[in-house]
Amino acid sequence: MSFFEPDRTTEYKIDYNNRQPVSVIAAFNPMGDFKPVNFGIMDLYGNICKVKIEGIKYAKEVRGGKSFCCVYRSSDQQKECILTYYVSDHRWVLGI
To answer: What is the pLDDT of residue 64?
Structure first.
């Protein structure tokens, strides 16, 4: 297996119907662990809005990836969202 090639020995079928793909800026540590820092989401007018993640309540391994329960502020209210990174697809999605 080459350095840049992900391990594809286990393929997962991921249902993206209830999830919205999003752009994410993530931070990595020297051990290779990562966490989301910002994400971008499209508003009703088609504009990309950048959202700063203020904290992560928890992170857990899920089938084919890793999920983060993120805390952010919107209109002076603290809100939560679930961001999941699927390794085999190299894709971040916003869950419900």
So the answer is: 87
Question: Measured in Å, how far apart are the chain's first and last C-alpha atoms?
Answer: 35
Could you give phi then psi for residue 76, rounded to 5 degrees?
60, 20
Q: Which pTM value belongs to this model? A: 0.81
State how far the Cα of 96 lies from the Cα of 87, in Å rounded to an integer: 19
Which residues partner with 3 through β-bridges? none
Q: How many domains does the chain have?
A: 1
Report residue 52: phi and psi, to 5°: -90, 130
44 in a structural domain: yes
Q: CA distances (Å), 23 to each of 26, 70, 89, in order?
A: 10, 15, 14
Choose between 23 and 9: higher pLDDT.
Answer: 23
Residue 47 resides in a domain:
yes
Its domain, for residue 34, covers 20-95
Beta-carbon contacts of 25 under 8 Å, excluding residues fewer than 6 positions away, are: 36, 37, 38, 39
